[in-house]
Amino acid sequence: MNLHEIIKFFETQFPTALQEEFDNCGLQVGNPEDEITGILLTLDVTPEVIKEAVTTNCNLIVSHHPVTLSGIKRMTGNSLPVQIFREAIRNEIAIYSVHTNIDNLKNGISGILAQKLGLINTKVLSPKKNLLLKLVTFVPLEFADKVRNALFEAGAGRIGNYSGCSYNIEGEGTFCGDDSTNPFVGKKGELHFEKEIRIETILPSFLQKQVLKALFDAHPYEEVAYDLYPLENQWDEAGIGIIGELAEIEKPEVFLKRLKEVTKAGVIRHSKISGHQLKKVAICGGSGSFLINDVIKAGADIFITGDIKYHQFFDVPNNVIISDIGHYESEQFFNEFLFDIISKNFPTFAVRISEINSNPIKYFS
């Protein structure tokens, strides 16, 4: 299988359009035309992971964290990113990163941990905005089903847990083609009246190209009339963090013990436990301190994330517990999540999880 085929699959599952502005998702190094012999999954790319890829005959490393967020202008010096890129190029190993584009999925990094903890009624904590478009098009009556279904298959018409969403109004369209046209109905040079269906549906902006292609391929007209409107609606299927509920109320001490067991965290740093019980849980894999105000507004009883600074523990009221389990610990299930997805879609392809623990933070006990 060529690398570009794998990249196409990844970008369908984890659109790079969902990454944050500061991020550097996608292909870090490699030739899209290369044939891939095996995939090695890792949270971080380190020199040890490069060696592991060589010894296991994996010429594609898929990581959560990019080798560098800012990019490299020169391959000089001996910084860690330069070392990694040099060794990858020398051994003809491609590196592809799936970072905030998977963080921003409802079932992404935060959603995985929510599932591990048994949360129910989950939703995105801080949904994305300005990512939705409304498509309006006009189709002759007998072709409405064909066009509508083509749009749905291309990814349009999804609202929450519902698919096939559209609004349809019957009306009458007019058009007059000049001498260079070949109209599907009517005659060139004559004003034609046609019974049509106005179809309205919704789509994420990153699917615009494929949805429009589906529209043009299915529509019978020589010239397809359509409108695209940007929407200010928030998109509840994408955004940072997850908030959900425990199936049963738990005491903070009981929940924190269970959290430590599930994540195998070396230590859990947390704010003061005031004695109230827990029902509503917020999670952000990685560095989630910027979401503290969202957590408070959402009415969460506890917030699980990593990289909380000292003074930020003062920023929460007594009825909210901040729980810092560590950056690596909160994202560690990335490997098994991606392993399952790749294995289900490419059952005969060689994919393995790195045996290297790339967590740079150690705990003395």
Question: What would you say this structure looks like, in words?
Answer:
This protein is of the alpha/beta class and about 375 residues long. α3 links the parallel β3 (about 60-65) and β4 (about 95). α6 packs antiparallel against α7. The chain has 11 helices and 15 strands. The protein is about 25% helix and about 30% strand. The protein has a 6-stranded mixed sheet. The chain has helices spanning about 5-15, 45-55, 80-90, 100-105, 110-115, 145-155, 210-220, 250-265, 290-295, 325-330, 335-345; strands at about 25-30, 40, 60-65, 95, 120-130, 130-140, 165-175, 190-205, 225-230, 235-250, 270, 280-285, 300-305, 320-325, 350-355.
Helix and strand layout, with pairings?
Elements: H1 3-13, E1 26-29, E2 39-42, H2 47-55, E3 60-63, H3 80-90, E4 94-97, H4 100-103, H5 109-116, E5 120-129, E6 132-140, H6 144-153, E7 167-175, E8 192-204, H7 208-218, E9 226-231, E10 234-250, H8 252-263, E11 269-270, E12 278-287, H9 292-297, E13 302-306, E14 321-324, H10 327-331, H11 334-345, E15 351-353
Parallel strand pairs: 2-3, 2-15, 3-4, 12-13, 13-14
Antiparallel strand pairs: 1-4, 5-10, 6-8, 6-9, 7-8, 10-12, 11-14
Helix pairs in contact: 6-7
Brief account:
This protein is α/β, with parallel strands linked by helices and 365 residues long. The chain has helices at residues 3-13, 47-55, 80-90, 100-103, 109-116, 144-153, 208-218, 252-263, 292-297, 327-331, 334-345; strands spanning 26-29, 39-42, 60-63, 94-97, 120-129, 132-140, 167-175, 192-204, 226-231, 234-250, 269-270, 278-287, 302-306, 321-324, 351-353.
